[in-house]
User: Fold Cell division ATP-binding protein FtsE from Croceicoccus ponticola.
Amino acid sequence: MVRFENVGLRYGAGREVLSDITFKLHPGRFYFLTGPSGAGKTTLLKLLYLAQRPSRGVISMFGEDAVNLSRARRPELRRRIGVVFQDFRLVPHLSVFDNVALPLRLAGVPEEELIGPVTDMIEWVGLTLALDQRPSTLSGGEQQRVAIARAVITRPELLVADEPTGNVDPQMAVRLLYLFSSMNKLGTTVVLATHDTSLMNRQPDAAVMRLERGRLDDPTGMIRNPPEQRGRR
Ligand SMILES: Nc1ncnc2c1ncn2[C@@H]1O[C@H](COP(=O)(O)OP(=O)(O)OP(=O)(O)O)[C@@H](O)[C@H]1O
Assistant:
């Protein structure tokens, strides 16, 4: 589904913040991306959701060359990827319903066809009572759930989440992990960046990619606990 080969990235003329990144993501798997602050997790996620181009290396997404993607192809590929941003990025003047409906409206889904799925999705994240509220009236955990609902409403093949439990208490973190895990069970490949080892321990089947100063900590580029070895441990 995704292949990185010797990918490097520098911002402007600075040093490389990612170096020699090589890995593959397999469809339907769950991956954690971890590592100390400043290791490059957000930057790696930006490459994954096509918000950034690498300075060198090969990135293939869904079988396409993601580095030399034409402007016309980019939105199409991007639609296959759901993103939960670290700072939510909800639209402040839109209600919970309209925030979650946004990706479907942008994709041209007619109003009568989106009401059912959006209402169901909001119910799934437990926010039916907040349907008409603006994001500013919600708690951090509630806003995070809106952001997750918006990211998955289009049933993306790949879901990328940057510290999605960073702003919530441990109990809410477990609930949010359950949402990601449920999406994963429905077939979505998940990449979740986190510092939270207790969260990672709750998902023992997940593969863990660890970044250290811009490099994956296994120099061969093999991901720890590769999915093929599931069940053998
Ligand atoms: N737009 C930018 N311009 C220049 N340098 C940047 C930019 N974004 C990130 N960096 C630098 O790249 C490095 C990696 O940053 P990144 O945000 O990817 O790390 P991170 O692992 O996500 O950190 P955190 O866990 O604190 O969010 C850091 O040294 C950071 O200062």
